[in-house]
Amino acid sequence: MAFKDGFLWGGAISANQSEGAYNVDGRGIANVDLCPTGDIRDSVLMGKTKMFDFDENYFYPGKAAIDMYHYYKEDIALFAEMGFNVYRLSIAWSRIFPNGDELEPNEAGLQFYEDVFKECQKYNINPLVTISHFDVPMHLVKEYGSWRNRKMIDFYERLCRVIFKRYKGLVKYWITFNEINMVLEAPFLSSGLFIEEHEDAELVKFTASHHELVASALATKIAHEVDSENMVGCMLASIAPYPRTCDPKDVWKAKQVENQSYFFIDVQVRGEYPAYTLKELERKNIVLPFKEGDRELLKQHTVDFIGFSYYSSSVVSADPTLTDTIGGNLFPSLPNPYLKSSDWGWQIDPLGLRITMNNIYDRYQKPLFIVENGLGAVDVPDESGYVEDDYRISYLSEHMRAMRDAVEYDGVDLLGYTVWGPIDIVSASTGEMKKRYGFIYVDRDNQGKGTLKRSKKKSFEWYKKVIKSNGQDLSM
C-alpha cells in the first residue's frame, strides 16, 4: 500500500475566498476584501493600483463569497460524508484583531473559529490551519505599510500567541504563511503591499519577505512552546519551471526561476538564507533588515513539514523575445506543446507533480504535505445542481497516481493531500465563481447572485471512494 495508515485526506480553502460576512461580529477590513473583479484586478493584486477602500464602481466578491460563515456546519458535514480526516482552512486575521494592532482580541472572532474546530472534532476531522492566507488587516496596511514595517512581526506574534493558546487541543497542524513566495509576484494580494512610485519595488518585497520569514520562525517557536504536539509547516507555491529547450541558457533560466521561490523554503527549513539569494541581493544593492537575534531565531526554529500547492508546470526561456505567455495564472509561462490546458490556460501536467515532490524531498528531506491541487473549470449543472465533472475526476486521479508513484516508487515521505476547493469558492487569481474547483456546487455566479444552495457533483462520490480505499481505487 502506497499511503500509510493515518494518511491525511481532505480539502483546502481560505477564509477570504469562502467565509464572506466581511463586516459581521466585529471583523475588520483586510487587503483581500479589496480585490475587485474586472480588468483592474491584476493591477491591484500586484500592488500597482492603489485600492485601500471599497469603490462603488467595482464588485468585490470576497464580501459575501459563499457565506461559509453561516453555512460551515452544513459544509463540514458534507466534507465528513466524503470521509475527510483533514480540512485545511485559514483564520481571517481581522476577525481576531479587526485593526491588527489591538492589545486584546475580538472574542466573537475567536469563538467562531472555536466553533468551527469543534465541529471538525465532532467528525474526527483534523483542522490544518493557515495562520495568514494572504490576510492583512487594512489598518496595518494604511498605518504601518504592512510587512515592509518590522512592527508587523509583533502584531503577528500577538495573533499567534492568542490562537495557539485558545485552540490548544483543537488544532495540531499549522501553516505560518500561505504560498509565502507569492509576495514577489502579487505583493498586495499576498502581503498587503502597495508599491509607491518613489520606492524600489525589489527592496520593498525582499524587506517584507525577511519580516515574514522571521515571523514564521517566531510562530514555530511559540507553537512548540505552547503544545509540543503541534506540527508547523511552511508553504510554497510550486511552479515546476521547465527549460523551453536544452540550450544551457534555458536550463540556467529555469534554475534561476526555481531558486527565486525555493529561497523562502531554504530559510524556513534550513534556517538560513542560501548563498545564491545573498549574492543576488548583493548585486541589487539590497541590504536585508537583519536585527539582533534574527539569525538565531531562523536557525533554531525551522518547520516540521513542507506544504506546497501544485496545479501545473511552467516553461521558461532565456530568450527575451519570447513573450507569448499563456494566461490565467499569476506565474507567467510559455506554452508547452506536450501538455493540454485547462479552461483558464493552466497546463495539465500530472508527472510534473511527481517531479516536484522528488525535487522538494531530495532538497530538504522533510515530510511533505500537498495542501493544494485541483482543477478550475466551467461547470454546467442540471436543474438539480448536479454536475457530471468527469474532467475534474480525470485531472485529480492522474495527479493522485503521480503522487502515489512518488511515495511508492521514489520513497517520498508524504503526510497528506488536500484538494483545493472541495466546495466552489471565489477564485483568488480572477475573482470569479465561474472558475470552479469543488466536489460541491454552490449556486452563486460572478456577480454574487444565486441561492447559495449546495449540491453534490459526480466527483463527490468519486473522492469518497478514493478516501475509503486510502488512494488505491482511483477508477472513474
Automatic annotation (TrEMBL):
One of its GO terms (biological process) is carbohydrate catabolic process. The active site is at E372 (nucleophile). Gene3D superfamilies: Glycosidases. Pfam families: Glyco_hydro_1 (PF00232). InterPro entries: GH, GH_1_N_CS, Glyco_hydro_1, Glyco_hydro_1_AS. Keywords: Glycosidase, Hydrolase. One of its GO terms (cellular component) is cytosol. GO terms for molecular function: beta-glucosidase activity. Belongs to the glycosyl hydrolase 1 family. PANTHER family: 6-PHOSPHO-BETA-GLUCOSIDASE, GLYCOSYL HYDROLASE. This is Amygdalase. The lineage of its organism: Bacteria, Bacillati, Bacillota, Bacilli, Bacillales. The gene is ascB.
